Amino acid sequence: MDLTNHFVELIIRTSTDLPSDVEDKLKKQMELEEEGSPAKATLKTIIQNVSMAREEKLPICQDTGALVFYINYPPDLYKEKDFTGAVLKATQIVTEKSLLRPNAVHSITGKNSGDNTGSGSPWINFHQWDRNYVEVKLLLKGGGSENCGIQYKLPDDNLGAGRNMAGVKKCVIDAVFRAQGEGCAPGIIGICIGGNRDGGYKMSKEMLFRKLNDVNHDPALRELEEDLYEKLNSLQIGPMGLGGKTTVLGVKAGDLHRLPACYLVSISYMCWACRRHTMIIKREEVSYD
Hints:
Blueprint: H1 4-16, H2 20-32, H3 38-56, E1 66-73, H4 81-96, E2 123-128, E3 134-141, H5 143-147, E4 150-153, H6 165-179, E5 187-194, H7 197-206, H8 219-233, E6 248-256, E7 264-270, E8 275-282, E9 285-288
Parallel strand pairs: 1-2, 5-6
Antiparallel strand pairs: 1-3, 3-8, 4-7, 5-7, 8-9
């Protein structure tokens, strides 16, 4: 089964069609902002942009971002090579269609590959599981939001943050305060408590795939998410940093076991253009969400 065309469809959908839960949240927040305020006007413009991108099949944002894939597959039915070639070819095809901006730059020479492929581009994370289908999750993450990602090591004397949930909250509030004007607010915040340097960042980015209206099954993390959501929106940073009630659309947190000597808090910031979609491959059938 050649998966190239299916990956083409997934990438196009992700670039041009904002997930319904994110769009619904933007609309809800627009109604909460004051009439005549910059926040309400900004959210109205964002929603119009989302609608036009979907109708015209055009990128939601001019920075179409880096392609980050998470592929879960049954090893008795598929191998990694079944996906890698299709991902690369599909990426080249969609770039040629101008639905992705050429964003892969060689870090030493500064030369742009021109087709979004290169070392680590696209970024593909593979995971084997025992289910009888393949799940492909794609996140398009722009440079503005990626630059706002940050990792803290607790205790942090500058923040007065200790190795506890109160310390974690101080880290997240500091990260969002520092991101204002850079990450295209309102943002979505992905958090990982614990783990190591690379594992923490990976999980914090995976948190961005969660639906905005889901509920964390862990009571402590659920309380953290809800409290931070209120605290962050009380900062009044607002859409695009222009003030208002909507600084974040959601906060999603996970945790990993850690070394006794390490207490890391990894934070991934996602702009309002949370471009994520999922493809399910089951037998010969392919579906998208």
